[in-house]
Design brief:
Elements lengths: L4 H10 L14 H18 L1 E2 L6 E2 L1 H11 L5 H4 L2 H10 L2 H16 L18 H5 L14 H22 L4 E2 H8 L14 H16 L5 H11 L6 H10 L6 H4 L15 H6 L4 H12 L6 H15 L6 H10 L6 H15 L3 H11 L8 H15 L3 H11 E2 L1 H16 L5 H4 L5 E3 L7 E3 H14 L2
Antiparallel strand pairs: 1-2, 3-4, 5-6
């Protein structure tokens, strides 16, 4: 019989004999290492450079921006910005650490703005609620043939290449990208595959491998903690919640001002690859996965990309895929208003840049990592790319914002729909190797990853 907790701890104490430790054995040196890491992490909240592109950002200020976009009055938090910046400039880490905690407390307790337009839209908290709001189409797709493995391999290959394309441009605007790189039609530097976007897709696959069709949000969350050593913004908050035993859906929204950012949207296509042509189950899995770190519109972003990837196995016209996926977003959600607005620009503008400028202006109050402007960027790049992978990547790169996330998701959709490998100019520099910073899986074969995805998909039925 399992012993009680108190028994184990008392017996441990009972059998522990006093010892005299030398100075270098006393074990406090690790505290200095922790202090250095904590100091750097605190600084990065106030000012940091994006690892892949060097773009400048202020994540704690962006938290205020996002809370206001979700209908909260952040005036009190904004009043604390200058003080924090002064501590940062003086490198007064004791003051900055305490101030940072106070700022997040104020952010997380910001009062609602009752008349804010955010509150006029429906809030989607469960997949049952989502399913009652849309009518999913039913398709027949043969997962037993060669077509499934080929399309899935092309999808993974495209996703990894597209992520590498976009990493150098994320966090910038069209005008500045053009000034530095001109028209981007190839890699602007030697590509690599280190990217946090794909990390969470791999954790999802691990959860599916362990649990099969019974996989739950909690199972996915456990694999996050097992495999992902660190996160950023929404994922950082979620991982901290999870490590304290706060599981989905609470892990996605509790004290998480970034809960409608792109972090769920950037990992949706893997759900479509696991459920090819089965749009409802692709959406269900995406909703389940999204709730680990996001809420409401943040989760809908993952569903949107999952639906497009699932449709790409049964529909070859990319514009049709975009239109069908938009119609499978609940029309009373704010997310629907975003992707519908983007589609309207595609239908009324003659070129991608005119359409994008309209969207950029419309969503100017949103952070470049927020789901909304990036969802609009996806719609426009897919529409005007019109199934041509190279042109889709060109448009996505030139739009800026969170390019690696956008390019990777829509690149997957285009490659699956085309049922064709992307050009060698993209694949040759990368080869068959995917490098990650995860526990257990530092290096993977892209081809083997595709085979694994197909095998896991078949286990789900």
């Amino acid at each position: 019989m399992t012993k009680k907790a108190w028994e184990i701890e008392y017996e441990t104490m009972k059998h522990s004999m006093p010892v005299v430790l030398e100075e270098d054995e006393q074990g406090w040196s690790f505290a200095q290492q922790v202090e250095a890491l904590e100091n750097e992490y605190t600084r990065m909240k106030w000012h940091s450079a994006v690892p892949g592109s060097g773009a400048q950002e202020h994540v704690i200020i962006a938290a205020m921006q996002d809370m206001e976009n979700m209908g909260y009055d952040v005036t009190a938090a904004e009043a604390l910005i200058d003080e924090g910046m002064e501590y940062l400039e003086k490198d007064d880490m004791a003051a900055l650490a305490g101030h940072t905690a106070r700022v997040f407390h104020v952010i997380n307790n910001s009062p609602k703005i009752p008349e804010h337009p955010y509150w006029s839209y429906a809030c989607y908290e469960s997949f049952a609620q989502y399913r009652s709001a849309v009518r999913f189409p039913v398709f027949s797709y043969d997962r037993g043939g060669d077509d499934f493995e080929k399309r899935t391999y092309y999808g993974w290959q495209a996703q990894i290449c597209a992520g590498a394309i976009g990493t150098a441009m994320e966090g910038y605007l069209t005008e500045n990208i053009r000034k530095v790189f001109g028209e981007v039609n190839s890699y602007v530097r030697k590509p690599n595959t280190f990217n946090d976007d794909i990390t969470y897709e791999l954790a999802l696959l691990e959860a599916v491998e362990k649990k099969g069709a019974s996989v739950s949000s909690a199972d996915i969350a456990e694999q996050w903690v097992a495999l992902v050593p660190m996160g950023w913004s929404a994922e950082d908050v979620a991982l901290k919640n999870l490590k304290l035993g706060i599981f989905p859906p609470e892990s996605g929204y509790l004290n998480n001002p970034y809960r409608e950012w792109i972090g769920a949207q950037m990992r949706g296509v893997v759900c479509g690859m696991l459920y090819p042509g089965d749009v409802e189950n692709a959406a269900r899995l995406a909703f389940m996965d999204g709730q680990v770190s996001h809420h409401n519109n943040g989760v809908l972003g993952e569903v949107f990309n999952a639906v497009m990837a699932s449709l790409a196995y049964v529909e070859t016209d990319v514009r049709t895929i975009v239109k069908q996926a938009i119609e499978l977003i609940p029309s009373d959600s704010e997310y629907y208003s975003v992707v519908r607005f983007a589609l309207d620009q595609c239908l009324t503008c003659d070129d991608w840049e005119s359409a994008w400028k309209n969207c950029e202006s419309k969503f100017i109050r949103y952070n470049w990592i927020h789901a909304y402007p990036n969802a609009a960027a996806e719609v426009i790049a897919l529409w005007f790319g019109n199934g041509n992978f190279d042109e889709t990547m060109h448009i996505s790169a030139m739009q800026g914002y969170d390019v690696d996330c956008n390019a990777a998701q829509i690149g997957t959709v285009v490659a699956i729909a085309n049922n064709h490998a992307v050009d060698e100019k993209w694949t040759e520099p990368i080869g068959d190797v995917l490098n990650t910073y995860m526990r257990k899986c530092k290096t993977l074969s892209i081809r083997e990853l595709a085979k694994r995805t197909v095998a896991l998909s078949k286990r789900l039925y």
